[in-house]
Amino acid sequence: MAVQGIWSGTISFSLVAIPVQLVKAVEPGHVSFRVLHSKDYSPLQRRMFCPEEDRIVPPDEIIRGYEIGPHQYVLITDEELESVSPERSRTIEIGEFIDMKEVDSIYYDHPYYLVPTKGGEKAYQLLVEVMRRTNKAGLAKFVLGEREYLVAVKSTEGALALITLHYSEEILADEDITPREGKIEVEEKDRIKKSIRKMMADFEPGKYADDRRKKIVDLLKKKVKEKALVEAPEVEEEEGGGPPDLVAALEESMRKVKKSR
Amino acid sequence: MSRKVVEIAGKRLFLSNLEKDLYPSYGFTKAHILEYYRRIAEFILPHLKDRALTLKRYPEGVEKDFFFEKRCPSHRPEWVKTMDLRRDDGERMTVCLVNDLKTLIWVENLASLELHVPLARVGSPETPDSMVFDLDPGDQANILDCARVALILRDLLLELRLTCYVKTSGKKGLHADVPLNRKETTFEDTKNFSKAVAKIMQKNYPDLVTAKMAKEHRKRRVFINWSQNDSSKTMICVYSLRAREKPIVSFPLSWRELETFMRQHDPEKPQVMHSNAVSRAEHRGDLFREVLVKEQKLPHL
Known about the structure:
The complex is a heterodimer. Chain A is built from five helices and eleven strands, in the order E-E-E-E-E-E-H-E-E-H-E-E-E-H-H-H. Chain A has helices at residues 78-84, 121-134, 186-198, 211-225, 244-260, and strands at residues 7-13, 16-24, 49-50, 55-56, 64-69, 72-76, 91-99, 108-116, 136-144, 147-156, 159-165. By secondary structure, chain B is an alpha+beta fold. Chain B folds into two domains: 3-117, DNA primase, PRIM domain (Alpha-Beta Complex), CATH 3.90.920.10; 130-232 and 242-293, Alpha-Beta Plaits. A six-stranded mixed β-sheet of chain B has the order 11-12-8-10-9-15. Chain B has a four-stranded antiparallel β-sheet with strand order 4-3-7-13, with no helix packed on it. Chain B has a two-stranded antiparallel ribbon with strand order 1-2. Classes of the chains: A alpha+beta, B alpha+beta.
């Protein structure tokens, strides 16, 4: 694929190493908006504001602090953060193979594709095929961006997918949320089983679309068509015409031009 | 629906709806459009190269709805060159780069009649390689008023030792491009400079020129839109077709031609149709070539 990879390196286990590229598998389809000033439709900017000094703080005066108590912070510099950041992975080293059925979908974080790069096509296809047949997934630790992830590499529709997984400590315990186990009536259980069976279908994701997104896009199209557009004012700070030297040079040149015309 | 397979540079491409008339009141089909772009390719490609393309698609023709597409369509062939950009709002976006004939034909098969590109290349998105004066006539003004403004602008810039080149927008206006091609230039520079020029023009020719966007200032005047000098803006690419009644092209003119048109007082004369565009480009080469290569420094900034 000619898509720009997010990462490239090799995927390996025991003696096999396959050159691959990581590409994104999903492109979120949400519609994003700019925020405007209601009075004149100027696009607004976010600024950092210091309530103490009652002024906007420039970027070079901004630092990071971890809040440990009321009005108490530990300062952390960019260098310190960097010193604890893991080094970029060059390989995805599969440590073990697991049964994908054992991974509860609640652990799934974000999907990517792995695509073979030059020379890796054959071994890649082999791995795809074997993993598909055995329904196994490889587990590996992998650094992407600044973070180290636990990832599952699995076969999906003729390709390898890489799914970043949540660490177990990120998963909220469900004890407090789900009701205590009570006695379940056999009849009740059968009735629910039957209803589920009646509603069984194959998973066809194409049947479902993000309706809200579609409605927003339709609404926007309609409004564009109706010319329900507003125009932001041009930014006109001062009446001066720009850098003084340039204005002087332009004035002088303009005099010459007018004279020769 | 007619489909046809063509092979360009070893890649197979499926072309569809070739008989569909996309300029119905003139009579110009998708096949005609593809043929125009195929013939103009050697001239337009250097100006599209390595720039994030904004597609402006007219799937039902110029009289029906269009839509802009900044993202490269996801159903693209694997050989289409793309680039991942981060937009101002932090979102990632994959854009198409039209660097060769096959990609140009693919894009045109999507009925992207108009090709819009930024003033900077993808590798250096904050470095404009030219400064543009978008001359846009208000109500009751026309392209000949723009020509008058362009000629004054040319003389004014020459006094500052800057050469500029002019093209028709393919709609009602003209674009004057000042090549810079220096990696030190920023959009802040080009914006400040063009704005100062627009203001001095307005001050000296108040009945002819305005530097203000508001409609009421533009009546009977030419609006010098300096605000196009921005990393987030795009301009119609030279040699691109425009979606008007007729297949008119954004086309480079020589200054001498522009002076002649002014004397003839016919606002239709400067417009260049698809067929003329190809023969004129083939005859005299790319008058806009210098815009891509000439190095000039903006003085007094």
